[in-house]
Amino acid sequence: MNGQEGDCDVYGDISNRTNMERAEDDNIDANAQVGVNINKNIRHTPQQIQKLENFFMECCHPSTEERSKLGQELNLETNQITYWFRNKRAKMKAHEERHENFDLRQENDILRRELEQLKEQLMLCTCTICGGPTYIGLVQQLQEENATLKQQINWAKILLRSLIQIPDSPYVAQPSSSLLLELANDSMNEFIMMGQPNSSLWKIDPTSRKETLDYEEYDRIFINGLVKPCGYVMEASRETGLVFMDCLAIVETLTTNKWINVFEPVVSVASARTLILTSGRGPIIGSLLIEAGFHVISPLVPKRRVKFLRYCKMLKEGLWVVVDFSLPEEPHKLLSDGSSNRLPSGLIIEDMANGYSKVTWIEHTQYERSKIPPLYQLLIGSGIGLGAKRWLTTLQRHCENLWNLSNINLAGVYQENKGQNMRMMSRKNVNVLGESTGIVLSAATSVRFPVNQKTMFDFLNDKKFRSQWDILTDEASIEETTKIQKSRTHNNYVSLLKIFGSSLSVLKETWNDASGALLVFAPLSLDSVEKLMRGEASYSVPILPSGFSIVPDGVETNGGGCLLTIG
């Protein structure tokens, strides 16, 4: 070291001291003699300094023995040797940091000059296509505007979330009751206007002679706050019919989880959470916040996922309204998960005082058209696939089944003599009630036939033609040993078929109405049939059902065709 800095020991706190150095201080203080006064500045001789410098070049952290030996050679105390090495290390570190900072400042100056040169060159750049100047400043301005817009969107989301009080997770949502009541009343008013028999919102299509929604009139009257994302289309349908169930029973079915079982052919999966709403403008029995998936029985058509609030209210004695409506969502969120908007939909129920209820069902939905395969676009667009007719006929069939099952007796049971569209699935069953244990392979496909629904249903339902498509029966004779009628008006029957020459029987259920037809078959062993006849629990009998779903193809000309799903 130059100057006087290395000629003395400085006793005091030095920054950046290591744990080892602090330990050395503790040892020095512990070994120091009581009453010994040490001067804070002790000058070393040039010979001592040179000896210490030479040793520092070899080892900058001498051990206790080495410090003691140096003290004896230089006639210095051990603590003097310790402080000298500590000060030397601190000065070396400070010198290295100053040198490093100087190098970094020089490098920073060089980079700054290069940046200025690049900016000057960018200002002189020309477009390689048109030869004109480039607008670097405009790009920067657009980036700043985008950042501002993103910030505004985030603020809007925060404001909307604070109003509706719906967190990111749909399972812990806590909607604001006051806001939901306002949305529910607006949706109900819109729905009631759409349900009026002579409403100007509906017109007769001259081609199909069916009732369709007048969208121009609808947009003129209503503003529901639901933004239709790009690529989404609207579907609306209305159907009226009699249901063999009293008004209150229908309301109870729709406002509890029972509705999932009632509409099982339409609802593939659903979860519901009960909300309690209060209002002084009429009795309210409650509301359900529902997430569901509606489906057409085909592997080609994806589920229509929707989240909505179901709101029920009695308008007067014997007249109820159940309305579904989606809460406002950001359009990009709908596009990201393929969800649908459920505009005010539901049913108006009028008690007819004879066990029947008059039901007007309305379906009104926004969905992404590109998700529907071309084969099914006419069916979905016409409102047959997931429209009001399918929902109403499903409810009618269920109500008739309940009545027949409640009044059935044994005397009523009588005896009578392509590849890219294929979907495959495998799953493993372990201890699942009602299903066989092991690997289950499933396959399904949908095809179009140039015959109507009735012709296809009659062909598949006639036991004389069964050997043409059923490999289990082949050329064997079939006898229908048992037949139970579940519904009179929907051709809903459950039958047991006996195959001669085989140890298997076939359990069969069919129904056929305006919304479509279904034929389901499940082979049963003789032991399983005997278990059921003895009255054992049905879930103890494993079944693997297969069958056909038949729906119209939506074409009105030339009698139309049908879409057949085999699975």
TrEMBL record:
SMART domains: HOX (SM00389), START (SM00234). Residues 101-159 form a coiled coil. Keywords: Coiled coil, DNA-binding, Homeobox, Nucleus, Transcription, Transcription regulation. CDD domains: bZIP, homeodomain, START_ArGLABRA2_like. It is found in: Nucleus. Transmembrane segments: none annotated. It comes from the Eukaryota. GO terms for molecular function: DNA binding. Residues 173-404 form the START domain. InterPro entries: HD, HD-Zip_IV, HD-Zip_IV_C, Homeodomain-like_sf, START_lipid-bd_dom. Residues 37-96 bind DNA. PANTHER family: HOMEOBOX-LEUCINE ZIPPER PROTEIN HDG6 (PTHR45654:SF42), HOMEOBOX-LEUCINE ZIPPER PROTEIN MERISTEM L1 (PTHR45654). This is Uncharacterized protein.
